[in-house]
Amino acid sequence: MARSSTNKHPVGKAAGRRRGAGEAAAASGTVTLGMVAAAAGVSPSTVSRILNGTAVVSEDKRTAVDDAIARLGFVPNPVARGLAGGRTLSIGVVTQAIDSPFYGGALRGIEEQLGRAGYSPLFVSGHWNATEEARCIDTLRSRRVDGIIVLTGRLSDAALADCARHLPVVVTGRKLTAPGLYALHFDNFEGGRLATHHLLSQGHRQIAFISGEPRHPDAKERLRGYRAALEAAGLPFDPALVMPGNYTEDSGRMAVERLLDSRVAFTAAFAANDQMAYGAALALHRRHLHVPGDISLVGFDDLQSSVYTIPPLSTVHHPVFELGQQAAIAMLQLLAGETPTAQLPAPRFIVRESTRALS
Amino acid sequence: MARSSTNKHPVGKAAGRRRGAGEAAAASGTVTLGMVAAAAGVSPSTVSRILNGTAVVSEDKRTAVDDAIARLGFVPNPVARGLAGGRTLSIGVVTQAIDSPFYGGALRGIEEQLGRAGYSPLFVSGHWNATEEARCIDTLRSRRVDGIIVLTGRLSDAALADCARHLPVVVTGRKLTAPGLYALHFDNFEGGRLATHHLLSQGHRQIAFISGEPRHPDAKERLRGYRAALEAAGLPFDPALVMPGNYTEDSGRMAVERLLDSRVAFTAAFAANDQMAYGAALALHRRHLHVPGDISLVGFDDLQSSVYTIPPLSTVHHPVFELGQQAAIAMLQLLAGETPTAQLPAPRFIVRESTRALS
DNA sequence: TTGTATGCGTTATCAG
DNA sequence: CTGATAACGCATACAA
Questions:
Q1: Rounded to whole angstroms, how far apart are CA atoms B353 and B335?
Q2: How big, in percent rounded to 5, are the helix, strand and coil portions of chain B?
Q3: Between the CA of A2 and the C1' of C2, what is the distance in angstroms?
Q4: DSSP label at B119?
Q5: Over the stretch B181-235, which tens digit does the pLDDT of each residue have?
Q6: Domains in chain A, ordered, with CATH?
Q7: Contact A5 B339 (CB under 8 A)
Q8: β-strands A242-244, A268-271: how paired?
Q9: How far is B358 from chain A (nearest CA, A)?
């Protein structure tokens, strides 16, 4: 506890500044490309070329350099690289909340794929706010990222397309075509249809729907899927069965309470995401309604924790990890001047224990 | 879908390179400090000084510069700053999994605090593997972060202390003193004691404990708290009641199954983290044991989702968000040459609905 | 208080 | 195939 103010790390450059270029800096631990060049008896340009594969170099020089690199433990400085070459080997990722249980998997997928290509992700959070997202993008651009991946968000398509005029952009959660931009889209309509269809196939006819915010494109699509399934089964759409939510647990809880209070009859409920399903389950529990005994419940997204809810939640699997991976791959392709072709797997409905056939 | 291969963003520097220093680059959108200086009729150093508050500048020049900055929309280039000044205004954060439901809150706290100081976090994942963590730190150092925050992890104290000789380091989850390093520690012992004490106060005498991995310092502490509470109540410690887990839901599930199979009697269970408690609850559910009717259950950490489990989980609140905030604040203080004093709030037990007095 | 000169570590241009 | 040389955009030591 009683540490004195050592002041070990003064802000700013450590001692040893202003030293000649060739001078050894063993003490400071910083091995530069120039030092490698000197040690290998070649010019800095040659070392740089070997590092980047920019041009063909004779075998002997190459081994000499490789040798020197290993001996000195040289590590290229991405900062200098960024300044001189214009690329930082880092990709900006605009997520909505760094601790989102939903996007978490996507971040992992991105991290994994970028990592194996030598790129680092730079995560920033937009908090579902177009203004903040725009600020995030400014930050990322000022940090000279080589490209930007945007996970859904509220930015306008136009803003995104504009951004793509400067930098490669990959965006998820929308359908959009623009130069320098690739959109990765999950079939939320089909997912909504699948979930509803499952309930229908179990004999349910009065299916409540807890929707996400209408501003969300995927929320609208999921609702559309619900309606399509109903229609296909020859059932009328009853607005009284639809309760608005906002993708949070609490909104799911409240939706069920309002549903119950409204006395509309239903034997099953479809929450437009798992988090709302959790809240819905709790509300039912509080009213002594048993899932699936009294009410069947399905969610959407298949969060990691949905395997461990009580009862385990039947839901539409959303391949977020793959989403992240594909987004990263698409970005890498954009960077390489290729045209991405990445595609997401089709939605699958996962049957667990929260639904039961109506007897 | 049918986008042609536009090749809009060739890897490497865009056109416009190698232009004279003073030359306007309006087209490319890059406004440099030098251009601001020219526009304001002062030298670059003056602009730099104003930007960094490095020295006192006359009022008229200052306004002229501020004006030019606003007019040209100048944004300093952190990359160049990093190269020239040796500081990148970015802080490396070694977490274990970018999608961890536990550390997520901490990342948010870090992001928030660093952001308001103009710093950006650079998140990397160590995956509970000392080797990977070491590699993470290498990556961060090569990217010239100004400091490193390590969230627990498996790195040795010595490795951390060594790292702190080059860079300021803040580490959570351990007690450790070293120059240039600040350790932020949560009282896991007290937390374990509190949880057990709650169960005891409800009349439970046979309390099973599902432990975390013994390699984890906090897992050991939580177990120690359990034992201390037992002892304080004059109860013997029964090893048969302790089941090893590894902090995952599934290990919690399996622990309960083994407990039940072993036929050891218990009326309550304390899982060393919420995730294991979720798994434990599911195992009990499968065996038709009701929580809290048949078995009382408590967790540790108070994850966001523990409010919405069925039943809502009684647990020890772990202030992860504050942990992240304090870690960031401590880092900022270290950077300023101050001695951090940040401290974490004491553990609190949150009573929800998963425990019941033994009748 | 302000300007000048220089260098941070790398890549890119251009001449050999 | 290789090596000078000049940027990249900024911060700092030093001079004025």
A1: 44
A2: 40, 15, 45
A3: 44
A4: -
A5: 999 999 999 999 999 999 999 999 999 999 999 888 899 999 999 999 999 999 9
A6: 2-76 (no CATH), 89-186+321-335 (3.40.50.2300), 188-318 (3.40.50.2300)
A7: yes
A8: unpaired
A9: 22
